[in-house]
Amino acid sequence: MQRDVVVSDPAAAGSSSSAASFAETRVICRVCQKQFAQYTCPRCNSRYCSLPCYKGHSLQCTESFMRENVMDELKQMQPEDESKKKMLDILKRLHLEEEMESDGEDEPMLSEELIQKVMSGEEIKLEDLSDDEIKRFRQALASGELSKMIEPWTPWWKTPSARSIPLSPDGIQLIRQVNTKGTATSDPMTDQEPSINEIPEGPESPLPSLKQLTRAEPSPLLAVHLVDILYSYCFTLRLYNGDWHSDPLGASTVALSMSKVMGEDAKPETVPEALTACIEETCSPAYRHTGGFRLAIGLVEDIITILSLGHNALVCALSDFHQLIEAGKRMLKAEKVGKTQSTQSSSKLRGAARKLFFMTCWVHEQPGEAWPPLARIVEVQKASLEELDTGNCKADKKSKQQSKVLIEEL
Question: CA-CA 20 to 30 A from 8: which of 51, 102, 154, 178?
Fold first, then answer.
């Protein structure tokens, strides 16, 4: 075992007091072996003198952290696990609802004429439709039938350019799109909408250090809360097909309803707890038409992808999310809504914007090796979800086969 190197300060050599001499004793940094150690690693108790030396020793520390967490997650993946029971309940509920709805789907919800109008891009007004067409149109909106006519969006985090996002040390993106109109203001109601396949530009100004934002130590649960926030971000962008600029207020409302951390000030303590709450909301009646449990598994894969891309992609994603919430705040202020409703919504959006900005600054200060362990923990949960989904599908298939045989015998 390596021992700490202890050096006595010469200034204390002539002191007759043993207590004073002990106070002047210093420990040499275990990384560079040159400077006095002023700090102690909370995980391995190694003594170090500066941030570079901390980063120099932290790889081994991080790998140990990853192994411990992944093994803990694997141990938790038992049939008695509460999160697994919740997932099974969600799958059973979805299966029953799909069976009930399938009985009334013999005819399409939209008429051929209405489908042609939608496909051609023709403007459709409710007053131009019959009562029956209005009913069918609203049913198609609620069921997601209209979304099948929209060309699928490729998320920016799945493009090759996402692997090499250039950010400066203070978090600003080095390559930014030039506004040819020369407008200095940013208004989602008037500005030209950016291409929805482009990488988000990242923070517009240098990110401050956490010490400038708060005197308190950051919560050790921030990594878990990051998973919740990334899920909400990916869900919102997929729901709006990548174009949240078309309705910032609506997108903000969706984001807050999906993220329990931002919308309800929840503080999940584990990754399974955070994901379970998000997936339960995805499979709720309000959003089940978007894809249900299969979409949820895809969103977990999105989280893994962004975490695997690393520091710069995370900063850009959180910055884009922060801009979305800020645009929602401005739109809410411009719209005429009830004073009570406006105050409540505005307060929630302000709180969400503050959390997102703090999370962006926190992520910016973390070492690059912090994200692979978190990605692997989420991968463990994804494997568990896929196992549940596969088992549920096999059970449904077996049940249908047994029902078919009984009918034939009768």
Answer: 51
Residue position matching structure tokens 């008695």: 80
Contacts of 276 (CB under 8 A, 6+ apart): 83, 86, 87
pLDDT digits (tens, 9 = 90+) for 168-185: 888 877 766 555 444 444
Yes or no: say if 318 and 363 are a contact pair by the CB < 8 Å rule.
yes
Amino acid occupying residue 243? D
Which string of b and e fits 62-73 if b means at least 16 CB within 10 Å?
A: beebbeebeeeb
CA distance 104 to 63: 54
Distance CA 168, CA 364 (A): 11
Q: In whole angstroms, how far apart are CA 297 and each of 48, 132, 314?
A: 42, 36, 20
The model's pTM: 0.65
Phi, psi of 6 (to 5 degrees): -105, 130
CA 193/CA 246 separation, integer angstroms: 8
- Two tokens at 44? 């391995």
Residue 109 CA to residue 211 CA, distance in Å, equals 57
How far, in whole angstroms, is CA 222 from its chain's centroid?
12
Q: Are 297 and 382 in contact (CB under 8 A)?
A: yes
